[in-house]
Write a structure and sequence with these properties.
By secondary structure, the chain is an alpha/beta fold. The protein has a single domain, classed as Divalent-metal-dependent TIM barrel enzymes (TIM Barrel), CATH 3.20.20. It has 8 helices and 8 strands; from the N terminus they run E-H-E-H-E-H-E-H-E-H-E-H-H-E-H-E. The chain has an 8-stranded parallel beta barrel with strand order 1-2-3-4-5-6-7-8, surrounded by 5 helices.
């Protein structure tokens, strides 16, 4: 049975970020994930985790100027020093919070550029080698071109191709079913094909990116497929609630005791 982690960057936004940990726990979640922790000292986040008995499934490396539309640094020319500093920062937070997985964002860059690809591969390998010393897994996530035009990794196929070149045991696919359906489709066969490369899973309805009990994907079957192929990690609920967060959690009832 799947285990669900609330994404606190998108869920429970009715309250301030640090109060979302308690809100998630009261809703029955045993784990959380979020985009970026860096606006808060690690100690403040750790206190909320401990207070509410929560695990962190994953968070992201610093992405650059998020408010200006930047989506990562790893493939970006002229950002090497900033990227190296972001690795130090992410691993410092990971150690303090006991986080087992970190998502490394690539940035807005041309996937067909040999220069951008070489830089990206070099940087992912560097982050992976640094993370391996702490037992941390690095994940790479494709972001669909409808929501994030120009992203360096626009599809699962692009991630699989670059994973083969990176060739590090602690670098895997972040399999966001929302993005995968929009770009690759054929989710059942795709899940079977990538099962041994999956490092983390996220879900949302398609195409609205709301709760998973609506839209074109039938998630009971999709989640059963993940069980069948042996995925036993957290499934991140990276969706925008259609209304108030707790009012939309009825879909979770079938999995109570597992999340």
């Amino acid at each position: 049975m799947p285990r669900f982690a609330a994404n606190l960057s998108m869920m429970f936004t009715e309250v301030d970020f640090l109060d979302r940990f308690g809100a998630a726990a009261r809703a029955g979640f045993k784990a959380v994930e979020f985009l970026f922790p860096y606006a808060h000292p690690a100690g403040e986040i750790k206190a909320r985790l401990d207070e509410h008995g929560l695990e962190i499934a994953l968070f992201n490396f610093y992405p650059g100027d998020w408010d200006a539309g930047e989506k990562g640094l790893a493939a970006m020319p002229g950002r090497e020093e900033e990227f190296l500093a972001s690795v130090d920062q992410a691993l410092e937070y990971a150690r303090a919070l006991g986080v087992p997985k970190l998502h490394l964002m690539a940035g807005l860059a041309d996937p067909d550029s040999a220069d951008h690809r070489a830089r990206y591969v070099k940087h992912v390998r560097y982050a992976a080698e640094r993370a391996a010393a702490d037992g941390v897994l690095i994940t790479l996530e494709p972001l669909n071109p409808y929501n994030v035009p120009g992203y360096f990794l626009p599809s699962v196929a692009h991630v699989l191709d670059v994973l083969a070149e990176i060739d590090r045991p602690n670098v895997k696919l972040q399999y966001d079913l929302y993005h995968a359906q929009l770009t690759d489709g054929d989710i059942t066969h795709l899940t079977e094909a990538v099962a041994d490369r999956i490092g983390h899973v996220q879900l949302a309805s398609v195409p609205e990116r709301h709760e998973p009990d609506r839209g074109e994907l039938y998630y009971p079957y999709v989640l059963a497929t993940l069980d069948r192929v042996g995925y036993d990690g957290w499934v991140g609920c990276e969706y925008n609630p259609a209304g108030e967060t707790t009012a939309g959690l009825g879909w979770l009832d079938a999995y109570r005791g597992q999340s």
